[in-house]
Amino acid sequence: xxxxxxxxxxxxxxxxxxxxxxxxxxxxxxxxxxxxxxxxxxxxxxxxxxxxxxxxxxxxxxxxxxxxxxxxxxxxxxxxxxxxxxxxxxxxxxxxxxxxxxxxxxxxxxxxxxxxxxxxxxxxxxxxxxxxxxxxxxxxxxxxxxxxxxxxxxxxxxxxxxxxxxxxxxxxxxxxxxxxxxxxxxxxxxxxxxxxxxxxxxxxxxxxxxxxxxxxxxxxxxxxxxxxxxxxxxxxxxxxxxxxxxxxxxxxxxxxxxxxxxxxxxxxxxxxxxxxxxxxxxxxxxxxxxxxxxxxxxxxxxxxxxxxxxxxxxxxxxxxxxxxxxxxxxxxxxxxxxxxxxxxxxxxxxxxxxxxxxxxxxxxxxxxxxxxxxxxxxxxxxxxxxxxxxxxxxxxxxxxxxxxxxxxxx
Length: 410
Known about the structure:
By secondary structure, the protein is an alpha/beta fold. It contains 14 helices and nine strands.
């Protein structure tokens, strides 16, 4: 059901995360949100950071905002993206050293490489019982969304990782689950996630994003696993069951730990029909900039009757050079050659892990490019927003040194 993008032409947004202010140096580290908010330092930083990130995105000209993923811990290479739910569900044993029999294939990166550093540092919990929602340690997505939406004048999109991507890294150490077949584990985690998503929708959230179901990975690298692909479709639809009154987004990319490229030979060719026609949802987001929109032609057979809107990543999330508006506009025009304007959304390709000024500069480029394509006058108006945004970011950077937490550290 289209809510936030119903009457918008070429709306602009980001995947979810946003660079954190340096003065926001507190994290939940597995605590329930309510417990964290009892800590006056965390509470002050957490609420101020939300007001800041939403103001930054508004100044940049985005149409659909996010909470910056500011509920996630500031840990190494974005670990908290998948560990936030894993730290709070039943059936998992935490903070184990990498056990010798771990079958995480990404541990194969050679020692000394950054990917090896990431994979050996992250650690993964052991599955020791039935994985399920824990009423004593809820994910509190509804409350997190309310905190953000109360500080925004535009719709706030709330995103969370799919249960499917979590299962990649988990090994069973219990009779509850088969060691080699993770389908029941995926289903149980989808059930646990669905409880939180239903509460989020009931709280009033109009845009919910499920991030990284692994259908495109399986279809690209193991296309012969048709039975598994059928199960993944069912598991995803089970995970989002009951969200009929919200605008449901499906985010896909090819991995971005610490801005690193993980795979080669990736392609949406084998999964495009699945995402467009078999999954519940209203918007499908795709990574596109890293191959300069080489696969946008895949949408040509569907262009006249697209069942979902397509959010195309038109800015790079793996370089420190902020894409300028003319470059981004060129990518937008390339996408418009295939995808109708009323079906196209402009976004980042994945979760950028950048410094505040660089990250904001990248997203400003997206908003200006969008306005260029809407009309020349829109480009002029958006250029004024850029000036305002840059001024705001300069003030924001200066304010970091004047924030109460910064003063206390001196």
